[in-house]
Amino acid sequence: MYSTFKRTTAALALGVAMAAPAAAELTGELRIFLDTSNPAPRATMEAMIERFAEQHPGLEIETTVIDREAYKTQIRNFLTADTPDVATWYAANRMKPYVEAGLFEDVSDLWAEPEIAENLASTKGAMTIDGKQWGVPYTYYQWGVYYRKDIFDELGLSEPTTWEEELSNCQKIVDSGRACYTIGTKFLWTAGGWFDYLNMRTNGFDFHNQLANGEISWEDDRVKQTFANWKQLIDMGAFIDNHQTYSWQEALPFMVNGEAAAYLMGNFAVAPLRDAGLTDDQLDFYQFVSINPDVELAEDAPTDTFHIPANASNKEAAREFLRFVVSADEQTEINNGANLGQLPVNAQSSVDDDKFLQQGFQMLSSNSPGGVAQFWDRDAPAEMAKVSMEGFQEFMVKPDNADRILAKLERARQRIYDN
Amino acid sequence: MTVAADIPEQESWFHRNQQRIAPWLFLAPGLLFFMVYVIIPVFQSFNLSLYEWDGLGAAEYVGFRNYEDLYWEWVDRDAFFISLKNNLIWLILYLLAIPAGLFIALFLNQTVWGIRLYKSLFFFPFVISQVVVGLVFTWFYDPTFGLLNEFLGFLGLGPLNVLGDERFVTYGIIFAGLWPQTAYCMILYLTGLNAVDPEQIEAGRLDGAKGWRMLWHIILPQLRPATFIAFVVTIIGALRSFDLISIMTQGGPFGSSRVLAYYMFEVALSEYGFRMGYGAAIAVILFLIMLCFIAYFLWSMYREEKGH
Asked: Could you tell me if the ipTM is greater than 0.85?
């Protein structure tokens, strides 16, 4: 699961002709830990680090790539002992335990620099805890409804924008013998995505945030309304059967085979859908419909981040690396379709021509006035996220248990947030 | 004669006590590791269960609060209750591996051409990894593409989502676990059957015993040591039932297939976990349950030794 490549300065001597005029020469060792273990992101990151190394021939850079799942537990060890200078992680509440334990470096000074302050303003909130910034984002992606355009055409449906249209569309899809949505809730978080959208559309972004922060009772009538809306879809048979047995990947074939018409998912679902043989004529995207016309639309857009551990030894070089990662050109490069295929965080960067990225970028920059959430399991504390997503899964299987589930979540809230 | 009286004064302390020290010296490495990796962690776990600690910051002493939370989870029929209940189901149903193993062993304990191959084939599931067993049964149970529902459809029975239904999921996993465990018990009994005294069987025959009576009165008493070992390994296997659950359901759907060992892992070490104190409290409870069995095993072994 580990791979390490060490780069010595001598090998770079030829490549420095193009190096930017560095203000001060950086020296020493820079150790970077990455969780981008999938082949494409990994190659992207390694190429990016190579470009950084060319600009700073005096630096000896050592990169370690750790399996994405294993990383989530190993980070606790390597932040305290044998610490790297730069490490990847996730935004919002997901970084809170490390911020509170004093293991992440405060990088508010970077965010004060005009270069970053002006161009990264949209993600500043997600990186802020206690009024300070603890890292920089390097990529993010939209969530929304990916649907089979050919099935919609066949049934004479158009992209819905209101809850009524959504329900009537779905009824027609169900009548045609299909499920409206595929989903696999075995690993729980996919149900968290549905809850995010239904609750943000029913009660708004601020309410959703307060709920994630434990300020609102789970037995509040407004929460019950969210679940009532959800129940409408469940009761009409909108979701595939047995979703509790499938992972999100295992739920893909239902959409590919035309047994389900759509998938509420992050943009990362596009690649496997295309690999499975769906063309761009068959596949399209729409923003999750509005439910309560009184609340502003808000979206999920999970952000992946770079941090400097507090125990890092070469913080000067690490800061330079963060500046490099968020620079407009690098952002354009690493997020393009050939690399990560996601959205750049820098406002000066250009978005890839891919139609889903274009639509997602449009949606997030101009049609998400309510705000941008990270994702339920990143916004809520880990413990609450776990208990609640288990509740969502149970609710999706047994919608009649709603009151018992909400009572259980309320008990969990009182235990989790009071300490 | 006089020389013999002189020697003890010249002998070193070590020489004089050699007989008594030697066994302890040989035991020392084992004892040391047993202390460091088993006995001391038991007490550490108990100590940790009195704290609230996320593995990063400072640990906060909370007294018996973690146990209180467990008690309330019990009262509310919540995760802890379900885990404990599932543990009990595991303990009881997993024991089916013993009669099943015995049955197969009796069946295979004959000399026909190729019997070694059949024995190996029956032993095969124990050799393959639990992870593979879990995956195979997950596919077998798959509600859409799985073989099980093909069979059921053949018999005209409705589709069944074994791993997605909280009523069946634990039984489904136990069934998967019984497959390798039965093979294990079988091999224990096969070796036991080799040691059965043919003269006693002969004597039994002469007295007119056959079939069940022969098995019950002549064979089984001689298989007691094998039964005891099979019982021990099966109980331990049931309490360790972690890997299958992790592979097949991750404790789901909505936590209904958890057992204490898995719940402990989930609370303390999984992606959304890191409540070390709470995990330790569950570990202590699990240890107390195991202690009952350990005490029973030790006691019966002690009795056995004394009997001889």
From this structure: no
